[in-house]
Amino acid sequence: MIRFDQVGLRYDAGEEILSDLDFEIRKQSFQFLTGPSGAGKTSLLRMLFLALKPTRGSISMLGRDVATLSRRDLPSIRRRIGVVFQDFRLLDHMTTFENVALPLRVRGRSEASYRQDVVDLIEWVGLGARMNAYPATMSGGEKQRAAIARALIDQPDILLADEPTGNVDPPMARRLLRLFLELNRTGTAVVIATHDFGLMDQIGARRLVLGEGRLVIQD
Amino acid sequence: MSSRTDFSSGFQPAFDRVRTIVEARAGERQTPIVPPGNVAGRALVITVAIMTFLASLTIGAVSLVSKTAAEWQNDISREITVQVIPREGLDMDAALSSVEEVARATSGVTAAARLTDSATSRLLEPWLGGDLSLDELPVPRLVVVSIDAGAPPDFDALRTRLQSEVPEARLDDHRAWVSRLVAMASAMILTGIGVLVLVLVATTLTVVFATRGAMAGNKQIVEVLHFVGARSEFIAAQFQTHFLRMGLIGALFGGSAAVVLFWMMGLWTESNQARPEADQISALFGSFAIGWSGYLGVAFVIVLVGGLTALTSRFTVVRQLSLIDMLSPVEN
C-alpha cells in the first residue's frame, strides 16, 4: 500500500535527518513507529501524509508514485489517509458531531446522508454523551477520541496517529489502543507514532524503530 | 390572577408549536465552517465602514464641486454686460437706450435692460456710501444683456456695432472671468479627483491589511480543512463568501451613512435658506444635492470594498495553502 525505497530527507543544506528508509506498510497491517525524541518520527509521518517531500529516493502511495502527483491529485489521496494530530486540531466553534462530520461535509455530502454514520462512530469511540459538546469543554482523552473519530469517518485505507496517547492517562491509553486494534480488524492499516513502551508492550505488533536517522524493523 | 393563567395556557400550545418549528429549523442549519464573529471580524467591519464612509464623502464632495462648477459656468455664460463710460456732455439716458436697442436687435440676445439708478446705487453702496447721487459723480452705467446660451451672438460684431453707435460703450462678455472660473473649477475637480484616488488607494490598502489581519486568526481552520481532504477551491470559497458578507455589511453601513449625511445637509440648507450660514452654502453649492453620479460613485465604492475584502481573503487562503504544501513531494 505504501512503499519507501532508499528515501532520504534533509532540511535545507544540512545533513540528512533520515537516510536509506526502506520499508512497506501493507494493507490491514498494524505497526508502531517509535524512537527517541528528535529521531524524525514526525518528519516521517509528514512524508506519509504527503506534506513533506523526500530529498532522495522514491515513495509509492496507494499505487501512485508521489513524484508524479500534481497538486490537484493530493486531496483525493489524502481522503484515503486518516490523520490524528498530536494536538488534535479540532475546530473550537464546532461540536463533536460537527468536527467528526467535517471530512464528509468538505466532500460536499448532505448532512442527512451521513448523520447516522457520524452518530454511530461517535458512540463507537465512547463519546455518545458528548455529541454536542464543544472542544473547550472536553478533556484531553475526549478530544483525542473525537480527533480519532474524525480521522476514521470516511473509512480511510490507512490511519496515521501521532502520539495518540501522549495527553491521556494509562487507562485511557489502553482504551484508545483497543479502539485502534478494533479498527485494524475492520481492515484499516494503522501506524501509531509513539515513544510509550508501556503501550507497545501490550501487544506484539510490528515496530518501525527510528534511531540516528535510520530505520530498523522489528517484526 | 386566574385570568393571567388562562391567558398563558390558551397560548401555550401555539407557542410550543412555534418553538418546535424554530428549534427544528435551527437544528437543520449547519454551523458555518468559518466562525461568524470574532473581535478581528468586528474590527474589520468597522474599518471597512469607516473607510467606505470617507471614500463616499470624497466622491460626494467631488461630484458636488464638479456639478456646481458646471452651474457657475452656465450661469455666467448666459449674461454679458455693456458698460457706458460717462463723458462730459454725454446724454447718458440716450446712450443707454441706444445700447439696449442695438443689443435687442442682435440675434442670440434674449433681453437687454439697464441697471436702474437704485440698483446701481446699491451696487456701489459698500464703497461710496448710502447717500450717493449718480448725477453728481461720473459713474459708469451698466446694461445687462441676457443671451441664448445655446445660440450665442457674435460678440465681436456686437462690440463693433455698439461702438459705432455709442463710442463710450464697452462690451464685457466675461470671457476672462469665465476662463478664470473654468480654470479654477477644473483645478478644484482635478484636486478632488486626486484626493479621491488617494482615498481609494488608502481604502484599498486598509481593507486588504484588515482582511489579512482577520484571516490570521483562521489559519488553523485552513490547515484542518486542508488535512481532512478539502480541495483548495472549497476552502477559498468558504472564506470568500464569509468575507464578502462582512465587507458588504461594513461598506453598506459606511456608504449609507455618507448618503444620509448629504441628504441631511441638503435638508438643512433648504430649511434654513433665510439664514446667512445656509445662504453661504447655497450660494456655493446650490441645492447641495450630490446627484445620480454621486450615488453611483457611492454604490461603486460599496461594491469595490466588498469585492476587495472577498478577493483578499481568497488570495490569503491560497497563499496559506501553498505554504502548507511548500514541502510537498510534488512541489518540484
Automatic annotation (TrEMBL), chain A:
<dbReference type="GO" id="GO:0051301">
    <property type="term" value="P:cell division"/>
</dbReference>
<keyword id="KW-0131">Cell cycle</keyword>
<dbReference type="GO" id="GO:0022857">
    <property type="term" value="F:transmembrane transporter activity"/>
</dbReference>
<protein>
    <recommendedName>
        <fullName>Cell division ATP-binding protein FtsE</fullName>
    </recommendedName>
</protein>
<keyword id="KW-0132">Cell division</keyword>
<dbReference type="InterPro" id="IPR003439">
    <property type="entry name" value="ABC_transporter-like_ATP-bd"/>
</dbReference>
<keyword id="KW-0067">ATP-binding</keyword>
<comment type="similarity">
    <text>Belongs to the ABC transporter superfamily.</text>
</comment>
<dbReference type="InterPro" id="IPR027417">
    <property type="entry name" value="P-loop_NTPase"/>
</dbReference>
<dbReference type="GO" id="GO:0005524">
    <property type="term" value="F:ATP binding"/>
</dbReference>
<keyword id="KW-0547">Nucleotide-binding</keyword>
<dbReference type="Pfam" id="PF00005">
    <property type="entry name" value="ABC_tran"/>
</dbReference>
<keyword id="KW-1003">Cell membrane</keyword>
<dbReference type="InterPro" id="IPR015854">
    <property type="entry name" value="ABC_transpr_LolD-like"/>
</dbReference>
<dbReference type="GO" id="GO:0016887">
    <property type="term" value="F:ATP hydrolysis activity"/>
</dbReference>
<dbReference type="InterPro" id="IPR003593">
    <property type="entry name" value="AAA+_ATPase"/>
</dbReference>
<keyword id="KW-0472">Membrane</keyword>
<dbReference type="InterPro" id="IPR005286">
    <property type="entry name" value="Cell_div_FtsE"/>
</dbReference>
<dbReference type="GO" id="GO:0005886">
    <property type="term" value="C:plasma membrane"/>
</dbReference>
<comment type="function">
    <text>Part of the ABC transporter FtsEX involved in cellular division. Important for assembly or stability of the septal ring.</text>
</comment>
<dbReference type="InterPro" id="IPR017871">
    <property type="entry name" value="ABC_transporter-like_CS"/>
</dbReference>
<feature type="domain" description="ABC transporter">
    <location>
        <begin position="2"/>
        <end position="219"/>
    </location>
</feature>
<comment type="subunit">
    <text>Homodimer. Forms a membrane-associated complex with FtsX.</text>
</comment>
